[in-house]
Amino acid sequence: MLSERRLEVLRAIVQDYVGTEEPVGSKALTERHQLGVSPATVRNDMAVLEDEGFIAQPHTSAGRIPTDKGYRLFVDKLAGVKPLSSPERRAIQNFLDGAVDLDDVVGRTVRLLAQLTRQVAVVQYPSLTRSTVRHVELLALAPARLMLVLITDTGRVEQRLVDCQAPFGETSLADLRARLNSRVVGRRFADVPQLVQDLPESFEQDDRGTVSTVLSVLLETLVEETEERLMIGGTANLTRFGHDFPLTIRPVLEALEEHVVMLKLLGEAKDSGMTVRIGHENAHEGLASTSVVTVGYGSGDEAVAKLGVVGPTRMDYPGTMGAVRAVARYVGQILAES
Predict the structure, then answer these.
(1) Phi, psi for residue 102 in degrees, rounded to 5
(2) Which helix (H) or strand (E) segment is 30 a member of?
(3) Considering just the CA atoms, what is the radius of gyration of the chain in Å?
(4) At what angle do helices 317-337 and 86-97 cross, to 10 degrees?
(5) Alpha helix positions (H), 118-258
(6) For the chain, what percent of residues have pLDDT higher than 70?
(7) Are 136 and 117 in contact (CB under 8 A)?
(8) What is residue 204's predicted lDDT score, i.e. its pLDDT?
(9) How far apart are CA 159 and CA 151, in angstroms?
(10) Per residue in 58-74, is it b (16+ CB within 10 Å) or e — as a string?
(11) Are 337 and 100 in contact (CB under 8 A)?
């Protein structure tokens, strides 16, 4: 275990390297930080940190830089989450409050996260496998043609046309709408098929064919929309960190283009709490020089999806974690109110 003083030295090295982009020497540390010890003692502490693998010496410099292991210890033990200022929180709320639908919420969230953190923002659409039904609307467009509108608890709206076998009266339509909603509202998508399987039998013989057709379209909609989607923005921010990536940023860009890779990465974060993956902790080779900060968001206690940022390991972890957490909280509030 490292002593408290050596932990403070590591914290100072991380802060200085993130802030200056320059390898950090013992003289600079003692000048910038109130460590309460001599430069010789700091040099000794840095030697121990290097032996333990927390910092390393770039071959062209006398200073030291944090390793993945050093950043890991910094995040786990030394970095508090930096709270956003009141103006920043107001700006988030004002920017997200103008959203008109779920696509707009996701798009605004991506742009906002990329601007706040100056990293690449990744926002997963709410997973319909974890969503519940808020309402099913049925509208008559013609005597034998209906529109089915499915609204989820995350604000997602899906519309489908239903061509009926025979004309369907307004009274029967109102009856079907009421009975259908009484069974499925507030229930998970996965539970809906079982909840409605005997519904046609509760209608008059002449209406059963139409009821079955409506249910068939509803269940097809539920299945179609379980495909996972995400939105990525701010990729151009990576160009500001060109020297942070060995040789080229191309592997990072290729990994970001593979949405399957990013969805897997988000899915591997075990819970909805804050997850920080640093460097080689990211299984995909293209992301081995990056850090990925993610957190879950949702309309209630349970997360329905995740959002986060991808950037170089030389990252302002407290500020990034604070921004990601704050944005997730506001998105959750918007979904709950939508």
Answers:
(1) -65, -40
(2) helix 26-32
(3) 26
(4) 40
(5) 170-184, 192-196, 205-224, 250-257
(6) 94
(7) no
(8) 86
(9) 9
(10) eeeeebbbbbbbbbbbb
(11) no
Q: Does 118 have pLDDT greater than 60?
A: yes
Residue 38 Rama label (left phi>0; alpha psi -120 to 50; beta): beta
Tell me the torsion sign for CA atoms 289, 325, 55, 30: positive
Q: Which helix (H) or strand (E) holds 75?
A: none
In whole angstroms, give the CA distance from residue 95 to residue 97.
6
* Cβ(132)–Cβ(186) below 8 Å: yes
- Residue 335 gets which letter from DSSP? H
Q: Which residue has the higher pLDDT, 322 or 36?
A: 322
The percent helix, strand, coil of the chain (3-state, each to 5) is 55, 20, 30
Q: How far, in whole angstroms, is CA 178 from its chain's centroid?
A: 36
- Please give the single-letter amino acid code of residue 206: D
Whether residue 22 has pLDDT greater than 80: yes
pLDDT tens figures, 59-95: 777 789 999 999 999 999 877 788 888 988 888 888 8
Residue 290 Ramachandran class (φ > 0 left, ψ -120 to 50 alpha, else beta)? beta
Closest to 58 measured CA to CA, from 7, 32, 21: 21
Cβ density class 209-243: b for 16+ within 10 Å, e for less: ebbebbbebbeebbeebeebbbbbbbbebbeebee
SS (H, E, C) 38-61: CHHHHHHHHHHHHHCCCEECCCCC
**Residue where the block lists tokens 């008559």:** 140
- 143: tokens are 């005597």
What is the reported pTM?
0.76
pLDDT in tens, 198-218: 999 988 888 888 999 999 999
**What's the CA gap between 316 and 71, in Å, rounded?**
11
Q: CB 258: neighbour CB atoms within 10 A?
A: 12
**Please, are residues 281 and 289 in contact by the beta-carbon 8 Å criterion?**
no
